[in-house]
Specification:
By secondary structure, the protein is an alpha+beta fold. It folds into two domains: 79 residues, OB fold (Dihydrolipoamide Acetyltransferase, E2P); 128 residues, Immunoglobulin-like (Sandwich). 17% of the residues lie in helices and 38% in strands. It has a five-stranded mixed β-sheet with strand order 1-4-5-3-2, with no helix packed on it. A hairpin with a 2-residue loop joins strand 15 and strand 16. The longest helix has 24 residues.
Amino acid sequence: MARRLMILLGVLAVMLATSAPALAESEPMLTGVIEKPELTTYQYGTHSITDEVGGESYALNSEDVDLDAYVGQRVTVFGASVPGYEDGQVEGGPPLFYVTRVAPMGGPAPGSSATFTYELAVECEPPVGAEFLGFTATESLVTTPLTDPDGDGVYTGSQTVPRFAPGGPSEPITISPVRIVQGPPTASGPLGPEYRIIEDFGAVVAEDRTLSASVSFCGDGNGTPVVSGDTNDVGGKPVSAGPLRLPATGGVLPLAGMIGAALLAAALITRRIIR
């Protein structure tokens, strides 16, 4: 009898050990970034999440977990769907999921970010101490150093930017400004360091893309660098800044002065003759 009981207990232990993983795997879960919408067309749930697996959005509610602590984070939430909220049955809103626990996943959600790759072709030797940077402004100014490790004159670097606004629509955002600039900084503005602009790409949609520009530091005959990518906004149209030229002594300005002096002397002589 005791032997049979031991065998039965052993069988039960094996069954529990094999069924536990299956029970864990079947626990309802959603993975995505928790958001806290400020305004919705439905009046239930305190937070929301878009499941990375199915792509469906859910309203979230919980009395067991402080969901505010996970806003903006990529997590897996565990719990159960609340009956009666499927397929927009209540106020045309999303399904409601009650959260019992949260597991942070770390890292951005797949597809939630984009990569800007910068390429700057540099002709001739840059000034001593010059540096080149990719430059964007989202919530703050972000710069990315551009380097030329193989010495071929093409400086490159990449920058990760958010594709979507937190809690906003699923359309990629537009980032502005996006620039390639030259350092070191020329001044300090209210938002941070200001740089010499080599190329301003304007407003750029947050998708994976390569942003290319070129700049030349070759002399123009007077030893003045000509920066081909540097632009100024004149009347809404970008125009080349062009080479900087200083008045030369013995040139146009002195000649004009000599002509003016000669005309004045002639006028005085004529006046005396008439008198």
